[in-house]
Amino acid sequence: MKDFEYQNYIYSRKNEDDRTIINVKGVEIGGDKLTIMAGPCVIDSFEATDKIADKVKNLGASVLRGGAFKPRTSPYSFQGMGTMGLDILSDIGSKHNMPVISEIMSADELDYFVEKIDIIQVGARNMQNFDLLKKLGKTDKPVLLKRGFANTIEEFLLSAEYIMKEGNKNVILCERGIRTYETFTRNTLDISAVPVLKRLTHLPVVVDPSHAAGIHWLVKPLSLAAAAAGADGLIIETHINPRESSCDPEQTLTIESFTSLMNELNPVVKAIGRSI
Ligand code: PEP
Ligand code: MN
Fold this sequence. Notes:
Blueprint: H1 3-6, E1 22-24, E2 27-29, E3 35-39, H2 46-58, E4 63-65, H3 83-96, E5 100-104, H4 110-116, E6 119-122, H5 130-137, E7 143-146, H6 153-165, E8 171-175, H7 193-200, E9 205-207, H8 209-213, H9 216-228, E10 233-237, H10 255-271
Parallel strand pairs: 3-4, 3-10, 4-5, 5-6, 6-7, 7-8, 8-9, 9-10
Antiparallel strand pairs: 1-2
Helix pairs in contact: 2-3, 5-6, 9-10
The structure holds phosphoenolpyruvate and manganese (II) ion (MN).
């Protein structure tokens, strides 16, 4: 047992029944269902994103993802469409009746995100951008906080505390793989983080198998493992033509692979007493 398990933080789980269920336009995160979020890494056109939304919704996804402000390792890589990308995502979300999630990189865009986006994602690279976390804490928007790739579970939870301390209790945690000595995979999915977080906090825990894997064929087994380990949701990069995606094509699922994943998830989810 670690010291921080005993502390009375806002994130702390007080008893077995203590869980936060976040309702985003009628979609529950942290309840009995496994919430599937899917969509492209980056929004590069209305047409492609519209087709992706239509497909993934029919296959069981309830939240549409899409990046507009991209934290790219190289400054020469496509940086995203910016506010125009948020407009596209928001319009497509309304059209298909799906709440939308997108990553914020700077508090400068906070008002625009609050207006257009249903769940604001804080990426791994900004998990300890405390100024941004505090500002998000002053809104009441659901925030999906990703674990930094070099951060401990304790640091992750303390970042969630930064948001909640300011008043915003709508925090969703997301394990997306951490950096280890292994280089075959893009990151190493810390599957232990799922039951550890579920034990320590009442907050919903989502897994991103796409950025953990870095390879499309690993996304399905990691998703099944995450669901079996008790994750409340999955966020999965999916595209109608991954090769055309301007970002992360090698880890992005085709609609065919997403279909196969959803089919195989169903019995796993049922076995642990949940549904999709
Ligand atoms: C993303 O979800 O598009 C992303 C950049 O993820 P991460 O912050 O986990 O790298
Ligand atoms: Mn990506």
